[in-house]
Amino acid sequence: MPVHRAKQRDAEPTEQVSADHTHLGRVQSHYLPHTTGTLRAICSEPPVSMLSQTYLFIFAAKHSVHLKVHSRTGRLQKSREKWHTHRKMITPTFHFKILDSFVDIFSEKSQILITKLQKEVGSTGFDVYQYVTRCALDIICDKHVSNGCCRDGDGHPGPRSGRDKFRICHCSVRVSVNMLTFRMTLIVPFQATEILRQKIFQQCVLRFNVTTTHNGRYATGWHTLMNCNRQVIQERKRKQLQSKETSHIEQDGDDIGKWKKRVAFLDMLLEAAEDGAKLTDEEIREEVDTFMFEGHDTTSAAVCWTLFLLGLHHDVQDKAYEELEGIFEGSDRPPTMKDLNEMKYLERVIKESLRLYPSVPSFSRLLKEDIEIGGYTIPAGCSIRVSIYMNNRNSDQFPNPEKFDPDNFLPERVAKRHPYAYIPFSAGPRNCIGQKFAMLEEKTMLSYMLRHYRLRSLDKREDINILMELIMRPENGIRLNITPRIKESNKI
Ligand code: HEM
To answer: Where is this region: Disordered (predicted)?
Structure first.
């Protein structure tokens, strides 16, 4: 591989990152000092430069790198061939006709959420994050998938104590994700030769394995999650065989028709495997793991950040509430797909919240060809991270980037922007497969919250310590105060 030398920069990566984040309050990048320290220890000999992925967080934000970046490396990765086959197989399960059938489950779980929140009415404040996470995990698992494992964020007992299983499962996801983030922040200088980069990476991993207790926690968390999902798959397969319960699937010929009725994701995978795609149990498990992670952590973060902003901007909250009143006219009925599509203002609120607080703050890609960014040549073969967080704050595209302004998503404003000015779901072939699912889920949860409670955030934006992990979360949760909205006819 030809080694292209980039122009050298002298500044320290961690300093550069913090400097660019100062206007946002305290953004915690607590893995970076450790990582940089590790790197320094290993790369003490010249000419290895400290110029690294960390800078690309900055560069990628200011220059469009999307067109030359082809495939991803990093989290939840699989080989290109495997990814392509699985993506093709899973895509029909996100068809709008199928999503329609999920609206009921969104409502069912959101109803439980607002009921559970009643006990917080009158309290001086509480962290809404755990409540929302439980709701989102329950939605993604649904009773079919979670049967035997993490069912019961809501008190419906599973075969073993549901609450315990929720804890095991959620904690496993959390520990694993944290540890994965730690591993991913091992930085390798991009102008090092391929051999040197591999050597550095191996040494980093070795140090990580030997010197930290994190690895044990990571392994334990991950194995708990994997075993849990293995059990669920076996259990589900056994049940399908026993009861030959295929009646929930309509065999009317086309790919979409097969899934018209609501079936759990796991059922769809099991069917697809039988259909000849020949997924092994381990491959099914990998998909379930991915969905459990991608499908709940991302949405719960997004919902919580939106609640936070609504709790700060009461004018926006009132406007969103008025829109809901217009749709439901005081009724407590659950939303239909048509209702959700009519929530245009709430959609703008959600999009603007995701702009300021993207659940996935960055993603990795492997460069297939050399790329010029800001006068620097980054050679093919490098793994880079693209910062969604910074990209969404480009002042050329969003003139007042820190201001929370849902009108940024008025159609006429969107039409004037670069297509990649806003990429919370990434872009290109490996973008988020669940974005429509996520938008419907968010609208349902948020509309339930707004219809039943008036929200007040107890912290200011600058007081929130943001953790830039795989998922961007507030370190100490989101503290809210809620009061019921009194309706003449319907009280909760
Ligand atoms: C607000 C909510 C969400 C956000 C912000 C989000 C964001 C993203 C982003 C940025 C990626 C690309 C990651 C990368 O390239 O490394 C991604 C991938 C993915 N997301 Fe989401 N996501 C959300 C919700 C969901 C939901 C609800 C599901 C499933 C029901 C889901 C399933 C997936 C899957 C399976 C991938 C991998 C796609 C592939 O590699 O082909 N996501 N998501």
So the answer is: 1-20
